[in-house]
Amino acid sequence: MRQPDSLSDDGVKDYRRRGYWQGRLFVDFVDSHAAADPDKIAIIEAASQIRLSYKQIRDKTKNLAVGLIRLGISKSDVVAIQTPNWHELVICHLALNRIGAIFLPLHHGFREADIKHLLKHTNAKAFIYPDNYSEFDYRTFLKDLRSELPNLHKKFVMRGKPLDGELSFDNLTSDCSWIEEHGDDFLDSNRPDAAESKHIMVSSGTTAKPKCAVYCDDATIFKIIQQYGNYACHLTSDDIAAGIAPADTGATGYSFPVMAPLLFGGTSVLLEHWSGTAPEAALELIETHRCTYAVMIPTQLIKLLNLPNIENYDLTCLRLITTAGAKLLPDVAVEAERRFSCVVQNLYGTTDAGVATLTSVNDSPQQRLTEGRPAPGQELRIIGSDGRPAKSNEAGEICWRGPNQSYGFFNAPDENEKVWDDEGWYHSGDIGTLDDSGYLTIVGRKKDMIIRGGQNIHPGQIEEIMHRHEKVVEAAVIPVNHEVLGEIACAVIVPTSLDSPPSLNELNQLIIDEGLPVWSQPERVLFVDDFPRNPGGKVDKRALICKLSDLNSNK
Fold this sequence. Notes:
Distance between the termini: 44 Å
């Protein structure tokens, strides 16, 4: 069984011998940049216009780290924080990084059920939250749960006055009195090893309660610097990143647009809150701050492409758009590169287990339409239904392992056994093919697979084809019960106009033209104005199926 939350000493030594793991913490990079160029701006909040230099980040995180120690927060204690795309998320992370406590960011859209589950599951010792955001009453919520959260000893409020036993996050980050009392090297004795320093990425999966994947600094820094920054994107200290996706969920919103610039000595500009009804704010951010790259989920990119006036914005600064978090359809990538006049770079992986493949800015236009090749240092296999490695261009389950991978799920050994085998291979549940050059294409998910009278239908493959229709914004293919065939495919479409949507025959003609078998054609179609989505922005098929449950009657 794969051991969660750790790697053997030999495993750590092996990764470091190969040069994958460097033994450096996140704060080592920030402190180095602060020493070299203290006044350089590291983080900008687009809405509030708060600007923090590297020196300010270093000082605030040291102040907070000492304050937390004084309050009894120590190594391996879990500290949760819920915030929109605010700089406090980074301050909290780096302060915990200095003392070896565990960073647990919660998506700003999580409410009572998920917050309660995550605080209890991780035995969180402290919780940091806004004074007033999105009309959620944290104080009443926590008061009602007091008996159920006996380990939650400390509560911190951001951007507001503390009440009823709360502490001020802002005051802790500005209190530097400890330096005169203890000296600037006071924190050195609390420094963790980079293989044991831990942060949690919360999975926004669509089939169960959120799970907590545990990462160490060595693994995440390797992913960000060597795989993403150096190999895929050629980042430098001159880069200015646009953080469009939620920074409190996974790598798409945090690792690549927030931490990557900080590791390279660049600047991260944060969009406080993405709104699908006002996507222009993302373009305004890129234009105003002259961002050189942007990171977003494919859904956000589609929303931007639906705007008729992209060309009215001066986006000549933009050299790169990274997409991750869901499958990027080739037609979307082609259109994005045309309208934004920059390269679209793609990553494939999971919050649970890291990045498996990615494209590079050096790849050909055709190669950039795939999920890319295995990231440097990563091993990847396609396993056929017979359990053997699949041949070139043969579909099978995508499995991988390597130095950017998580340590597994926090306090959940049974969940680890479901997806990791004895040799450390992560079984993703995604179905894909590898071409002769080693580039991956995803065609569906094992759990999404629809079995129509014994014949397999891969929804992802059908969705990609249907998206090519000029009247389709997005497509999702879901199963509908059938008394004879077991289940059939239903296409749920977000059309360009609900007044003149495409017909089922039109959509299926695309499948016929693609040369797919007749059973691949959906036999029903529904039109909606948008899909339910999980906190990571992916289409929530479980919620979609529940919403349309009247279809699942025997017909």
